[in-house]
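Quick one: structure tokens for this chain, please?
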Amino acid sequence: MKAIFYGLRNNHVYLVLITLVCGTVVLWAWEKTPFLTTVLPPQDHVMRLSPVIPDDKIEEKQVSVGGDISEQSEKDDKIKEKQVSVGENISDHLEKEISPSTKEVSDVEQVSEQKNSSKQGEKKNLVAPSSSVRTDSSVRGEDNNNLTSHVEKQACSYAKGKWVTDDGRPLYSGFGCKQWLSSMWSCRLTQRQDFQYEKLRWQPKDCKMEDFTGSKFLSRMKDKTLAFVGDSLGRQQFQSVMCMITGGEQRTDVINVGKEYGLVKGRGAIRPDGWAYRFPNTNTTILYYWSASLCDLVPLDITNRSTDVAMHLDRPPAFLRHYLHKFDVLVLNTGHHWNRGKLKANRWVMYVGGVPNTDRKIADIPGARNLTVHSIIKWVNSQLPRYPGLKAFYRSISPRHFFNGDWDTGGTCDNTSANAAGMEVLQEESSDDLAARAVKGTSVKLLDITALSQLRDEGHISRYSIKATPGAQDCLHWCLPGVPDTWNEILFAQL
């Protein structure tokens, strides 16, 4: 027994000595022989099964997603320990590193790739280029509308894009919405037979515009007031948004709050100067005030109904001065009343600085309108610091489509095809140069709808009416549902 014991002990000593000698030879050969260093990959490559990510990239990703570097290092160490299983030799690692396509991907490798992919996706969201708002669906997830970043929304130019057919349109029935929509603008109630214009949706070029729903709009405007101030096209936009919010359905819960804003029908008047309605569930107020010129209009003799009216080109309407503090969103527009016929019919006399105008350049209609638009925007901009929550927009002019004449000279707009003037807007600058120049350098935003509306000459009231009586064609106002709905969708997106 002793002999066997000593024999095993001696064998054990011999094995240890042999191992030490072999190890010494291998280390000496490793240091002295360059050939081995060219055959074997670096040590860090040998230890990794998953694709290698440089340390600087790892740190960059950790910072971009707000991860803790020390915590990530501990995770990386654990992954490395799993990657090298007990009993695997160097040749196995080499084979997996050099020819990964011929080997089955290990569970550890899949986990590593998923984590790396997730980090890369998060990083893409955070550093998405501002020139584009399109985000791959694999990064954005299922809800593409709600995961668009704030930076991307700011980069979107809603004025560029094209009209596309959408069978989900219109957003409300042309036969309904009688509670808010004037019958003269509801083309479904006329003898018109083609309604393809209701099926078109505006698709911005560089982004996906958020879908409009009444509930989302009211939620976004909770405890807020939206005011439209302008001409009859502003009134159309007001009626459009009321129909869009309610889906054209009758709403007995909506409250008429016109008295709070002095919007009541005066003695002998055909209609009040505007309307105001409140949705009690969200305390949201929507109103419209008629101000075709955006000037302060003051009768020269309040006792005389036929008196001339001072048209103060450089002064905002009294309504705005009195109620601006109650508004959270303001949308202004003017344009089509700026002609000699309208001024003469309304007995408007131009005033500047509180006195009758004597400047010939301003007396010219384009000059007077230019002064007024710049003045109103400058005034609103000066008020914004006093009301930090107020968002102000100036809506660019809605285009007319009279062909071969005008209102009273046989002008027509009989086209029923949406692509008569093309379907896409690619220009960088607004088609309303005056509006673009007026808002430049201010905090008043441009609601640019001119070029996209220019493509839709088939969307006007045209020759259609409820009584089907012949007369002048209306190539200025729009059928509703119709183009003004898109103006409100863009407004909703910009909010």
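The two ends are 94 Å apart (CA to CA).
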